[in-house]
Amino acid sequence: MELLKEKIVIEGKVLSDTVLKVDSFLNLQIDPLLMKEIGEEFANRFKDEVITKVLTIESSGIAPATMLGLTIGAPVVFARKKKSLTLSDNLYTSKVYSFTKKETNEISVSKDFLSPDDNVVIIDDFLANGEAVKGLLDIANQAGCKVVGVGIVIEKGFQDGGKVLRDQGIRVESLAIINSLNNGMVEFV
Ligand code: 5GP
Questions:
Q1: Domain boundaries along the sequence of the chain
Q2: 155 lines ligand 1 (CB under 6 A)
Q3: pLDDT over threshold 90, residue 60
Q4: Does the Cβ of 124 fall within 6 Å of ligand 1?
Q5: Chosen CATH of 31-178 out of 1.50.10.20, 1.10.1660.10, 3.40.50.2020, 3.30.230.80
Q6: How many angstroms does the Cα of residue 70 sit away from the middle of ligand 1?
Q7: What is the Å distance from ligand 1's center to 75 Cα?
């Protein structure tokens, strides 16, 4: 997706050989027009599938997932990283090690919003080692849903999440795949 790649090149900041900061349009501030195109692009990539729910994880997955949900007319379910008073039982849970925070969170999704009748697409902002997606797949499995695929805004192709998922036969659609962040430069596949 050329618009996304341009945005990454112009506004992205390479923090290290493994971490890209895209706070200005994806993580701390959202570019709604870009996000709308991202939602339409995901819808186009998965147009051969009937999708009943979009599943993501807070916080940065919610914007692209919502734009996909808006485009195809499907509700968006998101996993929370912390329990709250209003979300304490009736949950599917899974453990996820966070690449950026270097800590393990128990993520949870309400049992009310996923069922064995659902055909689900999993959406996230970044794919690094695949831990977040694996947690969401685990939750979809617990709910008995069918996962038709995974949509990622930015995949770091030099980390092994994409390979691990594709080797398991999971369809992964990434809108921008980065080959390397070496020497402060973003190089796409
Ligand atoms: P994974 O679970 O695939 O190892 O890592 C993906 C998760 O970590 C994403 O949900 C994203 O929030 C965060 N993440 C991983 N790498 C990066 C990165 O380079 N930049 C940013 N902004 N977030 C990242």
A1: 31-178
A2: no
A3: yes
A4: yes
A5: 3.40.50.2020
A6: 24
A7: 24
Residue 120's closest CA among 91, 94, 150, 79?
Answer: 150
What is the reported pLDDT for 85? 63
For residue 160, the CA-to-ligand 1 centroid distance in Å is: 12
pLDDT on residue 145? 98
**Residue having the nearest C-alpha atom to atom 10 of ligand 1:** 126
Closest CA to 50 of 147, 143, 151: 147
pLDDT, tens digit, for every residue of 103-126? 999 999 999 999 999 999 999 999
The distance from CA 143 to its chain's CA centroid, rounded to whole angstroms, is 19
Structure token digits, residue 170: 């999971």
* β-bridge pairing 104-110 and 20-21: unpaired
100 C-alpha vs ligand 1 centroid, how far in Å? Answer: 6
